[in-house]
Here is the input.
Amino acid sequence: MVIKQFGKRYLQNMEHLEFTNHVLNMAKTANLEKMNPLIAPLEAAYKAENEALNQPRALDGTADLVELDEERDRAFRMFQTMLDARKYEKSKDLVKTARAVQSIVDRYPNLAEANYDKESAMIDNLIDDLNGAEAKAWVTTLGLTEAIKRLDEGNKAFRARTQQRLAKGEASGSVDVKQLRQITDAALNAVLRRMDSLDDLFPSAEVTALIKAYNALVDGKQFLLAKRKATNEAATVRKKGDWGKMLAEHYALFEVEHKLSQGSLSFTGNTVGSKEQRLYELAVADSEKTIWVRLKRKKLVEATADEVAKAKQVQNSKHKSKHKSGGAQAGAGGEHSGGTQGSATVTPKK
Here is the structure.
């Protein structure tokens, strides 16, 4: 009996995981003596992939660190507000002292907006500067001692919670789901090859039932992918229609600037690049010539040959990377073990 071919590489990560789960359960249910040794490797690959896809979106203590960071930001802003108020004192000496302290604070611009590590270091250095003999006297004169103390305590609390997180040794890098999928696919292909071999050398009703169940699974997934492809193609058509309407609003001026006949331009539907860097190909009536343009400041600007070549090179590189196959064809199902794996990595939020 023929085992249907199926490109698992087109499945999204969770779909691939569930596909593997179905095949694993089928193999366990079939309980074929000559296939059972392959169940353990497949189950191990499934568990590893499942664990990778269930990484926490936030590391330990993320909520605590957000709250602690907001507290030290409030402390800094309170300190800055109090310092600003001192600049309007009637006493010229107090105003001069406030400006002297401000000159120290100005060494650390955008302190409250800095990233966690940078802000921690900036506050630490600011506190050290304000604890210098002369500056400390200024702070005392201006009545800012408690404000500085609050800022220092807030920064220390933030650092302590950060150290607690680090002590747990929780991974903060990305998990290579692509590699795990390749391992899973290798285990799946081994099961499919064994299935095909059993059907050829030791045919039985149990093997036939297993193949029928697998083929039914493949039919369902192929329908899913066909539906997704049709939906994506329809969305692309709509998107190109929107781009065409947008570009048409600027044809008249471009035609005048480039001495082209009025109404001679049209959008071919071809683009390269993305977002603000996207280039659009325009056809010129009664000519084989096409022009690549970009929309810049609500005006069409012709792209240079180098810009077009570079954009195409980048796009082709991404396309090849997306569709590159990572393995040889399996014997039974004609399945390639590599290829596009959906989202390749899962990076926990910091």
Summary: The chain has eleven helices and six strands. Strands lie at 175-176, 265-272, 279-284, 290-295, 300-302, 345-346.
